[in-house]
Amino acid sequence: MEGGTRGYLAGHGRLRNASRDDNERVTRVVRLIQLDSGFEASSIWALGQRRWVYLRGCVASATQSRDLEAEVRLIDD
Predict the structure, then answer these.
(1) pLDDT tens sequence across 3-41
(2) How far is CA 11 from CA 6, 8, 15, 29, in A?
């Protein structure tokens, strides 16, 4: 699958520019984490770079880490 403008024009992505729209991607991930009460006691932050969102911080367990990753992967784009 292609990214960036070419991928957007081919219908592969919701956003038109991979790096210009990193802020929107990170904002959406942060909102998802904030709305999930299961992560209230966690300390998590998100960094975005060229369509990748990196999650850093501390969670209560390995299971919670896997659950968080699975939830974030469900976000389109």
Answers:
(1) 556 666 676 555 566 666 778 888 899 998 888 888 888
(2) 9, 5, 10, 22
Q: Count other Cβ atoms within 10 Å, centred on residue 67.
A: 15
What percentage of the chain reaches a pLDDT higher than 70?
Answer: 73
How far apart are the C-alpha atoms of 11 and 49, rounded to whole Å? 21
Tokens for 33, please give them: 């984490």
CB of 32 closer than 8 Å to CB of 72:
yes
Neighbours of 29 (CB within 10 A): 22
Alpha-carbon distance of 36 to 18, in angstroms, equals 27
